[in-house]
Amino acid sequence: MGHTITAKTPGVFYRKPSPDAEPYVADGATVAEGDVIGLIEVMKTYREVKADAAGTVSTWHVDDEDEVTIGQELVELDT
Amino acid sequence: MTIRSVLVANRGEIALRVVRACRDLGLRAVAVYSDADAGAAHVRHADAAVHVGKSSAGKSYLNAEALLAAARESDADAVHPGYGFLSENAAFARAVADAGLTWVGPAAEVIERMGDKATARATAQAAGVPVVPGSGVVASVDDAVAAAAEVGYPVLVKASAGGGGRGIRPASDDDELRRVVDEARREAASAFGSDAVYLERMLRAPKHVEVQVLADRHGAVVHVGERDCSLQRRRQKLVEEAPAPGLDPALRERMCTAAADLAREVGYVGAGTVEFLVEEGEFFFIEMNTRIQVEHPVSELVTGVDLVAEQLRVADGRPLSVTQDEVAVRGSAVEFRVNAEDPDDDFLPSPGEITALELPGGPGVRVDTALAVGDVIPPFYDSMVAKLAVWGPDRATALARARRALAEYRVEGVPTTLGLHRRLVDEPALVDGTHDITTLERLLG
Question: Which helix (H) or strand (E) holds B41?
């Protein structure tokens, strides 16, 4: 089974907490529900993107620093 | 004028404000725009427009190379940076000058000197301007405790290279100070690349009062009165007014003179703002902003001085069009910031489409906005999308007109701060002018 995490707000998506840091989650990593998997910058504020299901990171639909719209698919989890 | 064509290196209402000043002066205005802003009002009303990149600010309005290329491509001979983005970036100011263009603002060295807090503080002190009682940089916890005995509790531990309200920690006694100093130094090192911190006495409930200054290349410096910007949430201003209500005339005179002296001392050119805290009849310098400010319209409304036009004049080497004696404050003006934020949901930023819009009008009302029905407020930039500024021959009339204008003003499609303003304009603390920088957060609970 798969699960897709979508953007709850439009903005700019970041996979890392800061430009020099490691990504919140590596490809293939296992996440629990509620884990932070990225940030969306909206109007100069940063909002955490949390996994709304547990699973393994399989496919990213966006890259670091991509502009995203509300509801856009961000990443797929194998659940 | 030798400036004929101005690149407006900004977006939204301030870009439109600069475009309008250019048109009033017979100058050609060149707008820049990101993907998200194609077709925006600041683009529509300019004489020409250049695309500078993708929607995110880092790839467009903060991209110095793209902005310089746009200036070359469009034959602009001057760059006006507005506020925010690169307006206080000394490297950009220098790059503009090095490209043979006129920078509409003070020299890069002046931006640098006033940008570092500890340096600006020392500069103000040297110019005889009072600063909040404090220490120099403290090297250790024991140093800090010794310094605090001189300064007096409660104190704020501040990062010297800090800004935007970060790197500031309060301490009310020796024990708390011992706990927070190292923490503050670590945070400063990681956030600003320098672990230098100093102490400042924490004022109890001061007012934020700032002085508008103008200076030309011929040595003339004038102040254009003061503004009270005490209604703030998390150090973000929400309502501003001129003149400052309840300010003692002798104190006002001393503050305005101190601001002009400081501008003269640093060789300032253009429009700038010297910010102070005022408490119990004393005033203290906090910082200088080396650009036009969001709240400049209230000063324009009470003095009749077009601050943006003056910026363009002096950038071109011409003298200021007013002397100090000619700057007279008449009546009272209040500005309300319309932010696309939801006050009922912790001021959640709320981009989206404007589905309906009705702007207020009538005597004393000025609206600065770049929004029209059908426009989409992008998520990539600041949430401040409009400013309602209201003038009256006296403060009570200004507030009555503000009530009327706020009642007329309607925005649909996104939540805004308009509803909050309708409440604030009847708050006793605002009505009687006794509000301070703690008032708004207390009202919001």
Answer: helix B41-44
Per-window interface: A 9-38 vs B, CB < 8 A? 9-12
Give the mean pLDDT of B20-41: 97
SS3 B94: helix
Q: Using the predicted structure, report yes or no on whether residue B166 has a pLDDT greater than 80.
A: no
Q: How many domains are there within chain A?
A: 1
- Please state, as a whole number, how many other Cβ atoms lie within 10 Å of the Cβ of residue B65: 10
Q: Which residues, in sequence order, are CB contacts of B302 under 8 Å at separation 6+?
A: B225, B242, B243, B329, B330, B331, B332, B333, B391
Closest A-chain CA to B54: A67
What are B390's strand-pairing partners? B334, B365
Walk me through the domains of chain B, giving residue ranges and CATH numbers: 5-104 (3.40.50.20), 133-201 (3.30.1490.20), 207-444 (3.30.470.20)
- Token pair, residue B203, equals 């004022």
Which pLDDT does position B189 carry in this prediction?
A: 78
Interface contact B349-A42, CB threshold 8 A:
yes
Q: Report residue A55 CA to chain centroid gap.
A: 13
Q: Which residues contact B66 (CB under 8 A, 6 or more apart)?
A: B32, B52, B53, B60
* A67 vs B contacts (CB less than 8 Å): 54-56, 380
Structure-token pair, residue A26 = 């590596």
User: Could you list the residue range(s) of the whole structural domain that residue A26 is in?
Assistant: 2-78
The partner residue sitting opposite A43, judged by closest CB among B55, B56, B351, is: B351
Closest-CA residue to B161 (of B197, B128, B129, B132): B197
Tell me the residue length of chain B. Answer: 445
What is the domain-level CATH number for residue A19? Answer: 2.40.50.100
- Those residues of chain A that have pLDDT short of 70 are none
Ranges of beta strands (E only) in B280-432 are: 282-289, 332-339, 341-342, 348-349, 352-353, 356-358, 365-369, 376-377, 384-392, 410-412
CA distance B382 to B29: 23
Please report the pLDDT score of residue B318 as a whole number: 97
| ipTM entry | 0.83
